[in-house]
Amino acid sequence: MSDFDSNPFADPDFSNPFQEAPGNAPKATPAPSQQNTQPAIMKPTEEPPSYSQQQTQQRNEDQARAQAELLRRQEELEKKAAELDRRERELQSHGAAGGRKNNWPPLPEKFPAGPCFYHDIAVDIPVEFQKTVKIMYNLWMFHAGTLFVNMFGCLAWFCVDASRGVDFGLALLWFLLFTPCSFVCWYRPLYGAFRSDSSFRFFVFFFIYICQFGVHVLQSIGITGWGTCGWIAALTGLNTSIPVGIIMLLISALFTALSVGSLIMFKKVHALYRTTGASFEKAQQEFATGVMSNKTVQTAAANAAANAATNAARGAFKPQP
């Protein structure tokens, strides 16, 4: 077989460059490994938490909160219904008695003068604003009480220093003047604003009450000769008499507490005012409507128009010279 495999015509000196050496056999190339097309799956070392139990617990908590909210709203509605029922019965009783009678200030029946206003926070003021109005009423009483005590403090100062008669006189005047004026000028507008949701009365209250706050600050300072036992006047009185000075220092603390309380309540009322939907435009409309619906204004306007028409007619028909 070797004779058939050899080429008789081959050149003995020719060497095939592509022929491998006798000792170097061609290396077999390894077959490509078959790729695994299955996705890699990692076995967890721990079991996943049970989400169904957590969801059930969360659902139960949400249902409990929703039920508590419904109960709270139901209680509020029941309170409002009871309040409305009580107001209706109150109005019916007042109507049967011939209308609402003034009950403030509470004076004895045999007193020569009678009450000037009707004042009942539980009847006139909505439930959500009653607490604020009660606080403002207590603040007004605290203001009146402070002025009353201030009068006696200035009297004690006048007893130890005869040159302080002006302070005592002014203290008496402030008590007699500011006590009723503060009730009429800023508490009654606030009472009416919350009762009828009046933007105009809110603006009246804000304007007057900010002036009242300025007066409280001046009374706390206590400039001598102004009729207030403020800090400056108290320190001056302390040099004259220690017991009188201590009394005046306590009154100064009352004026300071009154100033702080007035500022806090002013901010609170302003925050409530912003939630009621009141505005300056509504205040203008209420003022115009109130002025035009006033019988006195209508009568004055009618008389002015009649006089103008009469004068114009006389001027038109007056014979020319």
Give a quick set of tags describing it:
about 70% helix; 10 helices; about 325 residues; mainly alpha
Summed up, the helix count is 10
Which stretches of 5+ consecutive residues score pLDDT under 50?
A: none
The total count of strands amounts to 0
Order of helices and strands: HHHHHHHHHH
Largest sheet: none
Strand fraction: under 5%
Q: How would you state the average pLDDT, rounded?
A: 78
End-to-end C-alpha gap: 169 Å
Write the layout of secondary structure elements.
Blueprint: H1 2-5, H2 51-96, H3 121-124, H4 127-160, H5 165-196, H6 199-221, H7 231-240, H8 242-275, H9 280-293, H10 295-317
Describe this structure in words.
The protein has 321 residues and is mainly alpha-helical. 70% of the residues lie in helices and 0% in strands. It has ten helices and no strands. α6 runs antiparallel to α8 (242-275). The protein starts with a helix and ends with a helix. 18% of the residues are buried. The mean pLDDT is 78.
Kindly summarize this structure in a few lines.
By secondary structure, this protein is mostly helical. It has helices at 2-5, 51-96, 121-124, 127-160, 165-196, 199-221, 231-240, 242-275, 280-293, 295-317.
